[in-house]
Fold:
Amino acid sequence: MNHKELLKKVRRIHIRTLHMANDLFAGQYHSAFKGRGMEFEEVREYQPGDDVRTIDWNVTARAGHPFVKRFREERELTVMLVVDVSPSQGFGTHTQLKRDLVAEVCATLAFSAISNNDKIGLIAFSDRIEKYIPPKKGTSHVLRVVRELVSLEAKGHGTDVSAAMDYLNLVVRRKAVVFVVSDFQASGYESPMRIARRRHDIIPITVTDHREVELPNVRFMDLVDGETGEMITVDTSSRAFRDEYRRRAQGVFESRKKEFRRMKIDPIDLFTGHSFVEPLQRFFHARETRA
Structure:
């Protein structure tokens, strides 16, 4: 991709995702992520409708009539995008590659974050750390993050979520909201993710193409592993083979969901060729309701 094409793609993502961040997710994002806590602001006289639990009894006793404490939310958060840029992200059969879906959802989250005065950072990984951008505010910073996601060509060939979690704990010391965006075609990441969850708010976003779950009946098909380059030829006219393929893929999917549930982590499941708006809205609504 040359420089002109890159700028056009980034501009297109900017226009599309900024609209969604401002019009669809701004309020939900704010409600879902409340900030670090509440900071004391002032004491004022009690007014009808004030919560009696906020009465400052010491000031009330001295003044002879009720006063209440006022607090304001410590709004600023650090949001980290921990993004899989391994070769498997170049797969897609529904008019959209996984990496294009990843770029759009990450841009939407990033613009939602800065519209709420939060910082946004990036850790891009394959089987190694490919890029780290420290958290900052501002539109130009978000556009840099998007540009990296669109243009970055991974040097690694595999997916190591564990290494990404270890690196996150190394470079981000204070609590952060962490979106881990990957197809999770990896193993052994459960323990590092549990450790990261002790400090951070971990939110996995799984990105899947339907052909990774179900094969069409098109007779012989060459299947190539995007990360190892290994190729096998299969006969998809066999109903038994297609059923077994689907069963194994769904088994992996369900096993991953159960593991996230054991960690008390809520994943967001996305599929290429489908809008990510509704899954994100469901997630934000669930977080807001629980809060």
User: Anything to note?
Assistant: The mean pLDDT is 87. DSSP finds eight helices and ten strands in the chain. The chain has two domains: 3-32+78-290, 37-74.
